[in-house]
Amino acid sequence: KLSNTTCKIFSFQDYKSSPDPIFEISAECLQPSPVPIIIDNGSFQTRAGWACKGNELGAPRLLFKSVAARSRGAARSETQIGNDISNLEPVRWLLKSQFDRNVVVNFEIQELMFDYIFSHLGVVTEGSVEHPIVLTEAPCNPLHSRQMMSELLFECYRVPHVSYGVDCLYSLYYNNALSNLTHQNTGIVLSSGYHCSHILPVINGRLDAGNCKRVNVGGSQAASYLQRLLQLKYPGHLAAVTLSRMEELLHEHSYTATDYHQELEKWRSVEFYEQEVHRMQLPFSAKGLGGVVSVEERQERRTQQLRRLQEINARRREEKLQQDQERLDKLLTVQELLEDGYLEQFHKNLVQLNMDSAEELQSYINKLSLVVEQGRQRLLQASEMEQPMDEGDGVTEMDPDFSEENTETEKPVQPVFNMAEYHQLFVGTERLRVSEILFQPSLIGEDQMGMMETLQYVLAGYTPEQQEALARNVFLTGGNLQYPGMKERIERELLAMRPFQSHFQVMMASRPAVDAWYGARDWALEHPPGGAGWISRQDYEEKGGEYLSEHCASNVFIPMKIAKPVPRLLVKHHWPHYWDVGTSPFLTDVLL
């Protein structure tokens, strides 16, 4: 058994976000023309900044979670956005997002996000926003969502130009530039975000949108799955197993197994478990903690309790004796009035004492004198007994259980209760189970193919030559693919999937979570507003909000034939056996 010094004990960081500063817009962003604003509109995190070169302006200026919190009935100005919410857990039930999975549907929240971005970047939004906007969108984004987004940007903010692109294709664009590869290449992109994952084939540098597939498994499902596993494992710590802490476990302590079942077999070994388990220390209060209490200490505590009781009783007797003595003195004073001949004052005091005669007063004085005398005798007796009680004889007589024989037998008693270990979460096989849902969604009850099965299905739709070209450039990006071992797992799956002696290459993005923003920045620097890939205000007014100007990292327009419903016409008069168009095999052609 390993010693405690080798155990991996970690503490939850419980990150608290601080409000974003409000930047002042620099002259470089205004001259000679307004610089485009790059917004990576992610479902987990939003990143925004300027299309500039350099270490300061060339990096995202704002990074915040894509959530908003506003109490019911609160004013719009009281809405908290992103990093304004220091701790998400107390207000999680109030959180709202502009996304349904990875598609923007709530444009009221999206408008609040834009207001937050523009105000913190120092952009004046009164009248119009003079800066072009580069915005990311979901692969195969629905036309209605793009139409509403264009309407919001052109009508509400009156921006001059807008460009839409797919985040994972921007990441591919950026990493190709880092590797000095041409942008006009063929490959396949595996992207996994917060709500879903995508398999996107790229043919000759353009997205093949007709063969794109989505898997409805992402980081949010992994966090919920991990939370459910740990809450079932530790029902006494339900409140401590929060989603924020589960996301921290995902980012800092999870990994992907190259061979899932073989890795689970390793965890059966006690030595392997003790070496690899991560003990997550929960905060707890040290009050009331203690080890083994010896018999002598318990006897001493009992003696002290008995002393306190004796002191309390003695104090009460003294107080009662004092009260009785004061009442007796008052009665004797009234009796002296009678003896001195002050009859009027005597009768007045007698009425106040609620007594009828001098005989009743004398009887009460006699009884009270007896009570006072007995109280004094009890006090004397109690003071005489204090000395033997201090020596402990009284306790031994009252509690025979505390004998010397019992003292010797009870010394090696109860084991030490480790409160700190009780407040630890042992995260073992959960470290690899959560990332496995990308390959086996059935673990969380999702009735769909895993990411690699979907990849195989997509590749099967191409010719062998195209499959070879796609497999030679498998690109991994997205925040949910940052688990250690993810690249090796996908390489192993491809080795089993591809034909014998075929070639493939897997490349991981340099920074899977933020490369999309840097790719959009580089694209905007190489393609100034007004050229290909940009939508102008005139284009919006002439062609509508659904219009998309395509480029190497954008979605592709796919014409779709939408079958119009055939009107249900009653034609019983001519064809008695057919009542409407839908039931006639030849009537449709005749009427159309």
Automatic annotation (TrEMBL):
PROSITE patterns: ACTINS_2 (PS00432). It is found in: Nucleus. Polymerization of globular actin (G-actin) leads to a structural filament (F-actin) in the form of a two-stranded helix. Each actin can bind to 4 others. The lineage of its organism: Eukaryota, Metazoa, Chordata, Craniata, Vertebrata. GO terms for biological process: DNA recombination; DNA repair; positive regulation of macromolecule metabolic process; positive regulation of nucleobase-containing compound metabolic process; regulation of chromosome organization; regulation of DNA metabolic process. This is Actin-related protein 5. Keywords: Coiled coil, DNA damage, DNA recombination, DNA repair, Nucleus, Oxidation, Transcription, Transcription regulation. Belongs to the actin family. ARP5 subfamily. GO terms for cellular component: nucleus. The gene is ACTR5. Its main location: nucleus. The keyword Translocase does not apply. Transmembrane segments: none annotated. Coiled coil: none annotated. Gene3D superfamilies: 3.30.420.40, Actin, Chain A, domain 4.
